Each structure stands twice: as C-alpha cells, then as structure tokens.
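Journal club prep — side note

Before the paper discussion, L.F. wants everyone to see what a predicted structure for a comparable chain looks like in token form. Sequence:
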Amino acid sequence: MTKAIRGRGAAEDPANRFDRIAFEPDPDAEQAPDPRTVYLRDASRSVLSYNRSPDIPFVASLNPYRGCEHGCSYCYARPGHEYLGMSPGLDFETRILVKEDAPALLRRALLAPGWQPQVIALSGVTDPYQPIERRLRITRRCLEVLAELRNPVGLITKSALVTRDLDVLAELARHRAVRVTISVTSLDSDLSRRMEPRAAQPRARLAAITTLAAAGIPVSVNVAPVIPGLTDHEIPAILSACADAGAGSAAYLVLRLPLALQELFPAWLERHYPERSAKVLNRIRELRGGALNDPRFGTRMRGAGPWAEQIRSVFELGCRRAGLAQQGPKLDASGFRRPPDAQLELF
C-alpha cells in the first residue's frame, strides 16, 4: 500500500486508460517526495460547456480550471484528466490547466447574437475557488462579466475564498441572478483534512455561509458526497449547522465512483481508514446494485435500494427540522442586457 502524501488526496498515479504503456513503480523503492503543483496554460477557444444529462439541473457551465488542487479523494472529475494524457491520481491535483482567457471568452459567448440568457453553472466540474484563484482571479473576472451583463450564475464551491467576491455577488443578487452553494461533506475536521486535503476546513465553510447570507446572497448547502459507512451519519448535524449559519436550502448527492475512482478511492480508504474500508465498500455496492458504480441516469446521483431510501429519509427529515428548503430560489434571466456597442466588441 502506497503511503499517504501530506496535503494530497491521492498517493499514486494509476495508468491512463487510453495508454497502452504504463509505468509500474518498484514497491520496494523509496517513495518520491511530495510532488509540486504545476500550472499549465489551457488554450481552449471556447469556455462554455453544455450538458444533456437529465439528472443534472443545469445546461450551460463554465470551468476556469481543469484539475483541482483541493485533491478530494472522491472527486468524480478525476477521470477527466485522462483525456489530457494525464493520470486521474496525483496528476489531477498537481497538474492544473488554467484558462487565462476565460473572462474574455465568456464575454464573447454572451454577446453573441445567438446567446439565450440562462443560468450558467460555475463550475460544473472542478472548484472555481481552488488555491491558485487567490492569485489569478479568473473566477472573479468571470463573475464581473456576468454581473455587467446580468446573466444569472449558480456558483458551487467548498472554498471560503468565495467571500472575497462579495461585492460582485451582491450586485448579481440585486437582480436575483446568483445562488451560491457551499459543499459540506463532513463536520469532522480530521476526516475533512484527510479526504479534502487542500479545501477549506468545515468551520471555514460555515463561516463563509454566514458571511454570504449576511450580505443578502442566497446560500444553499450541498451535502456531497454522502459516503455510506463514513459520513452518512452526519447528515442531520451538517444540515442543522448550515441552517444556523444562514443557509436557506439544501441538496445531497451520494458518492459515485466512475472509472479510475474504483481504484483510487478504495486505496485512500485503506491508507486512512483500513478498519472501515470493507464496511464502506460493501455499503456502496448495496447502493449500486452490487458494483462500485452505477452510471445509469436516475440512480447515479442517489443510488437505489434500502440504503438509498434511508439516506433520502434522513436528509428530508433533517431539512424539515432545520427549516431548509429542498430547492433553492429560482434565478432570473430577464435582467440580461447587452451594451449598446456590443456588436463592435465581437470584431
């Protein structure tokens, strides 16, 4: 078993599923030192992605970064790095692609004659407020474009850095054009540090909810992912704490392990919680029809069977007791506006 690396969710780089040749490290060799994060320029010429999945509540999304230094052990986005010729393990959290042109590309997309004003999810895959955002400010500049044009945005993060942009978020909120969702997986700081090593600690996320709510910004909490046998017992406490902090609504998602996650997450469990590993994996299989993953629409986000029903019941009861709605406020795209000289900006 590979030893844990301080500040990293993964400790290995499993083979890319598209490569025919793979490197197998010597298990007796001395482990390499903590890999440093490398930032690579993403030269994409478009910035909006479109979703056709019936169980995802948005169509358009914007991801300023590919890969995520938060290093969450369970992140379903990890296999996406394989399309870049990289590994879903350490590469995902140490080789971050940066879309420096995202604000300009977003502005161009929204000013195009064919753009239909609609909610944009920020982000749909990796966290828009991962550590490098503190310096690059790409997410903030995208929000400034959205605020200028009054295009609604649903923002989701597990970083307290979101409070840096209160001024822009408050401007969007004036036009009912923003909702911020804070992901809270656990209130246990030790578990969070191991599972989400470079994300904000739970207390910082609760403080961010309070700050956002006090500024008049609608805040939701996403209890995600719910990990059966590891975090599911925390659902009522998470909902209560987030409601006390100022959240108005809540949602949840059950852990899913697509592709390489079926290797990476069990390895993480064995490193950090070997005594719980079998129980957690067995519960996941009970939710997923005997497998570690079930990609079918309709069940992939919540699971199926008795354990899925129990999680749903606990969540719904927790929301009622905490006074949380199970659907956030509807965002309004009617305020969208183009500057008078917008067509000139396209040339």
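L.F.'s comment for the group: The chain has twelve helices and ten strands. Keep this in mind when we get to the figures.
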